[in-house]
What we know:
Blueprint: E1 4-6, E2 16-23, E3 29-34, E4 39-43, E5 49-51, E6 61-63, E7 72-80, E8 83-91, E9 98-103, E10 109-116, E11 121-124, E12 130-136, E13 142-148, E14 156-162, E15 165-171
Antiparallel strand pairs: 1-6, 2-3, 2-7, 3-4, 5-6, 7-8, 9-10, 10-13, 11-14, 12-13, 14-15
Amino acid sequence: GDSSVLICSPKPNMTMVTWKMSPKAGGPCSLGYRADQNKTDRTNCSDSIHWKFRPDRDPTLEIRQVGIAHEGNYTCEVVVPEGNFHTPYYLTVLVSPRLTLYCDDQGNPVCEAAAGKPAAQISWVLENNFTAKEEGHDDGTVTVLSKLTAHSTNGTTCIVSHPAGNWSKSIAC
């Protein structure tokens, strides 16, 4: 949902700049700029992908409202009389999991980190007798479910660790 900016450093006497992109979804696309004609061109790119500034001054790429479909390879090629210069990127998209903590029918605490990318890690404060399972989804996200099987009755805390952040919740079943 955030914007992502991929920097391509301008060089003196640029004759051409091309961004070649291969996102996971939507197929390859490209943005190009030719200095001799002061002309830009786009091929098969969604509206969310565009030049951040004027490409003759700064060929930085901006992707608005980044989603999992944008993940993939992005390469900027700057052409100058001395040669071609490539700046490659691989865009990885993180998705924060949705955290839920509840008591199951047997009174066991269950901690769920739903639809995160990559899979979240779940641990429990002062507890180590738990089971965990992961379920992958078609969009590349993963739901992790952790259930305590023996616990103190006066409450426990679930801790979810993820590259996008860390969270905790407490419950007494």
